[in-house]
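Anyone able to model this chain together with L-homoserine?
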Amino acid sequence: MNEVKVFCPASVANVSCGFDILGFCLDEIGDEMIIRKTSKPGINIIKIKGENLPYESKKNVAGVAATSLLNEFSTDFGFEIEIYKNIKAGSGIGSSAASSAGAVFGINELLGRPFSRKELIKFAIKGEELASGSIHADNVAPVLLGGFTLVRDINSLDIVSLPFPKNLFVSIIHPEIELKTSDSRSVLKQKVTLEKAIQQSANIASLVSGLYSNDYNLISRSLIDVLVEPHRSDLIPAFNELKKTSIAYGALGSGISGSGPSVFALSKGKKKAKSVTIEMAKILIPLNLKFHTYTSQINSTGIKLIDFK
Ligand code: HSE
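re: yes, here you go
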């Protein structure tokens, strides 16, 4: 193979109570990337469509992630990258993770898969670090592994894939304002009370239990974030109303997708998720704000090759 085309899915990080540790992969929206081998060594980004992003590989998340892979697996040839963005930067559904994961996944395919999908996470998080100023794998892990993933330890990249009920669907509403992860992290408190830490641990533990046991009711009771959402919700137009409405129309729970401004809601069944998406959209219509909506299944397989030559 000399060229691959990759589908790089969007993702939802945090999932309310799992700040920086929990995430899942979407299948309704994603970027495409074409990566090809070139005789010129190194990484060369030659085309970016859909977003105004830097071409210089040191400043582009895909370039940084790809370079980190090549630092460990050196080649006497190089790679050129074309990026076709559908996921808006700063949307909260893992735009930088999709590009970072796409670059390392595509190069790994062209190299004959020297690394496992799990091993690729350590390269992809370098791109995420450039985008957000901190290291977290809650977007890149589900993109590379599919489904729900839990980052037990970021330093050793001890990452666990979690099962999930097959009838779990997600509604996403993305108000078109750009919220940089670094800005959205800057409003967070560095210290939390023991009481809140206990509440958050109880919810994340129960959410994981609900995912294992297909207990929709327990999932619903556990989708509560007492640490992060209270500080970020003011950054998102009509957040409280979106959340209240989604729950009133039958969603199991709702919260900020990643660092926002997108809002997600989880529902049992596609029909319910679709009606929740429509009702959330009705909240934003009067605000005269451009927005996008998606209703998606959880993508259990993650990033994939769609073509090769
Ligand atoms: N866990 C990250 C955050 C996800 O919420 O800041 C966005 O990169």
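The pocket of L-homoserine is lined by residues 13-14, 19-20, 132, 136, 138-139, 181, 184-185, 258-259 (CB under 6 Å).
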